[in-house]
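Hi V.,

You were right to ask for the full record rather than a summary. Here it is.
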Amino acid sequence: MRAQKIPAALLLLFAIDSLHANRRKQKEKIIQPLTNICDISDRDSKVHCYCEYSQEINEAVKTECWVFNGGIETTDPLWASFSSQSNIETLAFNVRADGGLSFVPTRVLRYVRKLKHFSIKFSSIPTIESNTFVNITSIHEMTMTKNQIAALSKYAFYNLPNLTILTLDENKIKKLETDTFYELPSLQKLFLTSNNISTIEDGAFRHLVNLLELELDRNNISELKKECFDGLANLKRLDLRRNKLAILNSFTFTELWNLQELLLDYNEIYILAQRTFDGLSQLKRLSMSHNKLVTLIGGLFEGVRGLSALDLRYNKLKRFTYDNLKPIYDNLKLQKSYIYLEGNEFDCDCHLAWMHRLRHEAKSIKVRTSLENFVCKFNADPALNAHFTYYERMGTNNLEEVDRQQDDDADDVFHEDVDDTYIDEPKRVRAENERALLQIPVELLPCPADVKSVTDRTYTYPSQNEAKDYRNLIQTSATYMISINISVFVLPLLLLLGYE
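Predicted structure:
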């Protein structure tokens, strides 16, 4: 019996039906019930998230996720579940197991297109690779602290147009390369505290034209070149505390035209070139406490004539003359200023006589208090001791009286960082030969013979101008003390005798 021939048109119809059936099967395999990332019931899940306000699909705005159970891979299907909450604006990952997360979960970032705040903590991410965060246009703030990050590749942070704050504290970053931070037009704050940074390549911050605050404290930076600050023309605050800086050369900060605060405390600085701070015409606050400075070269503050807050505590300074202070002296009389010089090796001599005048001219309670507490080594003739004791008693009472007569403003324009070490430092016990300078009348301050500085052989002191200033100070101080003596002792005596 002959087989019946099937028409070609019918065969084509069968083929089309078969193709549609296969597509339906594939679609059924792909489309599975969506896991709500805010409502994971599987106890064995490697990630559990907690969503504030609402756990309904696409209603979560703030989500915190914890990574458990020995870690998660980049291919884990759980990452796709973040599509269930595409409206998340704040997303944080906290890793609760060693090695639990060794990469940045970039797949998640493709699902949460409204993300503004993103953070990862306690992970073990060795490197931020190039283009890891490329083109995430919605993000405003990113925090990646305590993640064991050792390296930042070029273009690691690339084209994040709305990123304003980037925090990379407490990692293991060793080097800042050129073009790591690229196309970040809105970045205003970059925090790199407590890393292992020892090298900053020229132009590492070149593209951060709108950066206002840069924190590089608690690293291993031993050298600064002016090229490493290229591009930071708008920077206002630079924190370099607790590094290993020893020498600062001329024009080190010359690119930082708008810098207002420079913090260099707890380094090993023993040499400052004469033009170290040239270019910092807007600088208001300079802090260099706990370094190894022995002397300050003449003209050091010529380039920072707007400086009104100076901290040189706990160095090894042996002299600080009026000529050192002259470019900024008038600024220190302002109400919001301060100067700290305690913990150095000053002798009580005429080179410090300017403190008497500044104490009475200053409007700032911080300046007055600092000068009143200033202690130096006083090796005077024993015959002066009784005279000194009299002035010491008189001076203390009169300084308090002057304070009561002046109006003080407690507000401060500077955000003063209180270092933990300052808080824990024991109160220094005054040595037998130490005296509060302001309790010594100017006329009793010895004036040493001309001495040449080891580091500045062209500088002798006291200069002719200084000698003139000291004579004026002596006359002013003597007149002031005489008027006090009359008011305190003579007037009461006259009244007692019946004179009016």
